[in-house]
Amino acid sequence: MISPPFLFGTLNEALKQKLNKLGLMSDLDLVLHLPLRYEDETRLLPIALLAAEQIAQIEGVVTAHEIQTRPRRQLVCQLQDASGTIAIRFFSFYPGQVASWAIGKRLRVLGEVRAGYSGLEIIHPKYRIAEKKLPLPVTLTPIYPIMAGLAQQTLSKLISQALAYTGRNKLLVEILPSAILKTHRLPKLAESITFLHHPPAATPLDALQSRTHPAWRRIKFDELLAQQLSMRQHYHQRRSHHAPALPQHPALQQKLLDLLAFTLTAAQQKVVDEISRDIAQSFPMQRLLQGDVGSGKTVVAGIAALQSIANNYQVAVMAPTEILAEQHLQKFTSWFEPLGIEIAWLSGSLKKQQREAALQKIEAGIAGLVVGTHAIFQSPVQFKRLGLVIIDEQHRFGVNQRLALRLKGSGDTAGVPHQLMMSATPIPRTLSMSYFADLDVSVINQLPPGRSPVATKLIDSRRRDEVLTRIREACRAGRQAYWVCPLIEESEVLQLKTAMETLVILRETFPELQVALIHGRLDSAEKSAIMTAFSQGIIQLLVATTVIEVGVDVPNASLMVIEHAERMGLSQLHQLRGRIGRGADAGVCILLFQRPFSELARKRLQVIFKHTDGFEIARQDLLLRGPGEFLGTRQSGVPLLRFADLDADGELLDIARETAETLLRDYPQIAQAHLDRWLGEKKDYLRV
């Protein structure tokens, strides 16, 4: 009988649905579903040689069998071989198990040996009856990622069958040129996959578990190569699209620079030049501008915006929160109004009449600059000639939102608008190379002169009175302070309640001070009025939720207290801390923590206490959380790596990046075949 060409097509629908939930849609998916770990069932150990904390396989006869009820119900058995006896214990069991462990039964057992009250024991082992002489496997036993309703044994059998099918159908035929494999000492793909599913008994377990074995190295390289190919392919494709060429207007730029109360740093000037060259080209710029908190990204964006407006093209500036968008509006207004440039404001809180007036100015092209929140990319907004899109804190917007804004200009005969994305969350090198390989990246790695260092102090919440004394002293000396309320992820309502309670307490504690509260539920006008009063020094102490995390700039505020700092992420703590130390006085950030807290929270607090460099904090954050959490994958639309580890595999990433360029240049058909194999329909990442 001739077997069908593919295994997946022979499976029943119920099984297919379970496999689909694991992301397995084909034979190739099955064979690339690699083990999480391995068990060594290739040898038997004598009971007398067992040691605590060892995972071992033994075989023996049941010599005792008892269901105990104290201190809790449990099945306790004794298993004996020629060398000794060990206790086997089950806290959860059913009648079939009790029958399997009847006295006189011969069983093969695999589990972790532990030190019990009366000697060594194994709790809830994996076991099977060994009445007939069971042969020992010659390969290690793979343990796969599974889900409820899909047994490990079922999946293991399916993967073994799929391996046979893929071999017959040449699905794993070698694609990469032999010269590349030889140069980088990479084994063949089919051999690597087969090896990882069924490693020989002598294979060192630590090399498999740590994924440092050459077979794992090949898999990780292929995965990284597919990612790099996809990203670089998009990078090159972008240069085939048309965008408005926006040459520099030096005289107008100089007028803006003359209005500024400061001189650009060397790092800012370098980035200004990079962006200026990009938007003068006739293909779309897609540049990520990174800079630590307070490094001066906004003025760089302002100079780029002016270059677009000088060429009679509009600019859209989008920020994730109204407070940040309003801060941008104030800065751009102070810079652009003296130059005669009309600015439009768009946010969800605008009244209908104001909104209609703004929309008319935008559509007619009267407004050269449009500043706002996500309201900018909604369907009623029509630009006359959109030349540049600037997105602040770009990772906070979903892919579809960013795409919608870019498409606002795609109907124009001038083509796709240029795009500048800004982030105050520095992205570690390996992450940038891996997930942003389709972008050009600029970094402002220098703070403006005069920025005072911020001292960070970790203080137990039981020493709250000392903190209150520091606030009183700072405000009496003419300075201002923030009191940031705890982040309560479960409920915005609870967070607001806590903030309001804190406001009452602080007003009672400081009757001589003006204390106010700002939070996300206030309308735009109220937020603006409070921030203006705080900026003017009318309010001395501002109680806030994390709504002030980005964009707030009050130089006289030199003290910040963050309650329940153990609940917050590193990026958020660093962003909040960046709100102070912007004036003549050195900033002090007090992180109030409450015990007990998790080990992860302890590590986060240690990092933020020791480091002020945003790039080092970001690197530590990546180590603690992994790329998916760090990037906010759900929003960013970035596919996670399944096998490669960006921290451990930086060397492989370098090789993959270099190889991707070689394949795209010299072997485009091989590059496409590799993408098809590893990414399938996901190969056309939507990178915006």
TrEMBL record:
Pfam families: DEAD, Helicase_C, RecG_dom3_C, RecG_wedge. Keywords: ATP-binding, DNA damage, DNA recombination, DNA repair, DNA-binding, Helicase, Hydrolase, Isomerase, Nucleotide-binding. It comes from the Bacteria. Residues 278-444 form the Helicase ATP-binding domain. The keyword Nucleotide-binding applies. InterPro entries: ATP-dep_DNA_helicase_RecG, DEAD/DEAH_box_helicase_dom, Helicase_ATP-bd, Helicase_C-like, NA-bd_OB-fold, P-loop_NTPase, RecG/Mfd, RecG_dom3_C. It catalyses: ATP + H2O = ADP + phosphate + H(+); Couples ATP hydrolysis with the unwinding of duplex DNA by translocating in the 3'-5' direction. GO terms for biological process: DNA recombination; DNA repair. SUPFAM superfamilies: Nucleic acid-binding proteins, P-loop containing nucleoside triphosphate hydrolases. CDD domains: DEXHc_RecG, RecG_wedge_OBF. Its EC number is 5.6.2.4. Residues 467-623 form the Helicase C-terminal domain. The keyword Isomerase applies. One of its GO terms (molecular function) is DNA binding. Belongs to the helicase family. RecG subfamily. Plays a critical role in recombination and DNA repair. Helps process Holliday junction intermediates to mature products by catalyzing branch migration. Has replication fork regression activity, unwinds stalled or blocked replication forks to make a HJ that can be resolved. Has a DNA unwinding activity characteristic of a DNA helicase with 3'-5' polarity. This is ATP-dependent DNA helicase RecG. It comes from Nitrosomonas mobilis. The gene is recG.
